[in-house]
Amino acid sequence: MSQDQCLSSDDLDNVEQPRSRGVYLLPHLFTTAALFAGFYAVIAAMKGLFTVAPVAIFIAMLCDSLDGRVARLTNTQSAFGAEYDSLSDLVAFGVAPAMYVYCWGLYQLGKLGWLAAFFYVAATALRLARFNAQVGTPSASKRYFQGLACTSAAGFMASTLWVINLYQLDNIWFVIAMGVVTVMTAILMVSNILYRSFKDIDLKNKVSFFFVFIVIVLFIGIALDPPHVLFALAFLYAISGPVSALRRLFKKS
Length: 253
Hints:
Blueprint: H1 9-14, H2 25-46, H3 53-73, H4 79-104, H5 111-134, E1 144-146, H6 150-166, H7 172-190, E2 194-196, H8 209-224, H9 226-252
Antiparallel strand pairs: 1-2
Helix pairs in contact: 2-3, 2-4, 3-4, 3-6, 4-5, 4-6, 5-7, 6-7, 6-9, 8-9
């Protein structure tokens, strides 16, 4: 028997045990579900299922909103989870909306069309990279996002196209308008405009009765007419940042 094999029980206790390389299952299930829904939105857009693709994107948004909360509630946050979530977001809220708008109509604009779609994907990647780099720094704010969040941008793009498709507004002028909207939404993502994150709201504390009533009304509205209600909510949130920035600018002048 070699010297390395002759270890006492005390020596075995002092040997450093290998670290576990496993990952937490529960939060990653929601992240994977968001990734799956985003990928399915791409497939639906390529097949011309323009009323299915936005539903898949909103399902991805719901799953994405749950994975982080589940991780915090179960104390299963990890660096791996954060990276996996960002990669999932790039597919579900960057590639999926870009492919959706391109397959819907931007392809008619030729090179300008696919460049606008790529610009949206690139802006999403930059937005996610900047957010990840700011996490844990003094400049990070819990109350505000710097730039439009990619999830909100994807919701705005998906709901806008959902409503346009319902009314069959697919002539060249609406295609050009959506090209402009795509570029402007991408610019909002990488801008320094502040948006309320609502992360400072403590759901464990008591809230007013009126707040509960508003939430119920929103759920009923979404159930009755998902495209129009979701579009209204996404549009109001998208313009809230520029409107607040203009108000602050006018107050200073």
